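User:
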Amino acid sequence: MRKYRKVVVGGTFDRLHLGHKALLRKAFEVGKYVYIGLTSDEMIRGKPYAERILPYELRLRDLIKFLEVNSYSGYRIIRINNAIGFADEIKSLEAIVVSEETYKGALIVNRAREEKGLKPLDVVVIGLVKSALGPKISSSLIRAGLIDPLGNPKGDKKGFKG
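Assistant: Predicted structure:
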């Protein structure tokens, strides 16, 4: 049974991996309608291995494919240009789904909502999905060629700077 009518989740969703999928599954598990913030190409410029991040349109395509394959319905994907995105504009949002790593982002969103006189969102936190090389699967490790989207080691590990 879904706990919330409207939830929000956001990310770059580059090379959709098990951690992204866990985050999205949780959002659809707890929310009847899910708003998905997808970072713009402009927003990702400062990320590790930014030049290797797939363009927005490809990340959007992969995200839609995942949602369709899993028969998810009741969602809207919105391009975002900053960490708050649209989460401080939609009054009817009730919860935000984040990972342990992105929990601080939820606090920033709630501060922005409160500054606009909106109710803060309940924060739903999922644990990190571990990789064979460390405490988490991350797009940075995938972009560096260290792991695959399932968290398995691959390729040459030289030159990676976390």
